[in-house]
Design goal:
With 127 residues, the protein is α+β, with helices and mostly antiparallel strands. It contains three helices and six strands, in the order ββαβαββαβ. The chain has a single domain (3-117), classed as 2-Layer Sandwich (Alpha-Beta Plaits). The strands form two sheets. Strands 3, 4, 5 and 6 form a four-stranded mixed beta sheet that branches. A two-stranded antiparallel sheet has the order 1-2. α1 crosses α3 (83-102). The chain is elongated and about 50 Å long.
Length: 127
């Protein structure tokens, strides 16, 4: 669903995919996050695979109601991190990025830890 802003010279539309991309990038940049997890097999982005484009909205579900946004983030963590600390940092990063870039109010960011990546070097402990 797209949200519209009526500006002085026209309408501005922000799609849910744009919000998901913003949230996905913000979550992925948090120290301790190994990557995003697909919520379901249907989320595999065939167009992105064929076109070679990275699906930065992967692992994000967005619900927009007026100017309020609710976000679900499905993440995979690096081995050795404090899960609660990283999840809280993801919530804050996603909320701040989406609010700053869209002007919407983020009412909820739910984080679902879907796995732990054992293939990487252990992460530095989070404080």
């Amino acid at each position: 669903m797209e949200q519209n802003y009526n500006g002085t010279v026209g309408t501005v539309k922000i799609s849910d995919d744009v919000i998901a991309t913003i949230a996905g990038v913000a979550a992925g940049e948090v120290k301790g996050v190994a990557g995003m997890s697909a919520k379901a097999p249907a989320e595999i982005n065939i167009k992105g695979i064929i076109g070679g484009k990275k699906n930065t909205g992967r692992g994000i579900r967005v619900t927009v109601d007026g100017g309020n946004v609710s976000i679900e983030a499905y993440i995979v963590l690096k081995f050795g991190v404090k899960i609660q600390d990283v999840a809280t940092a993801v919530q804050e990063a996603v909320k701040n990025s989406v609010e700053e870039m869209t002007g919407y109010t983020v009412t909820n960011v739910s984080v679902y830890v879907q796995g732990v990546n054992l293939n990487e070097e252990p992460a530095e402990p989070t404080v």
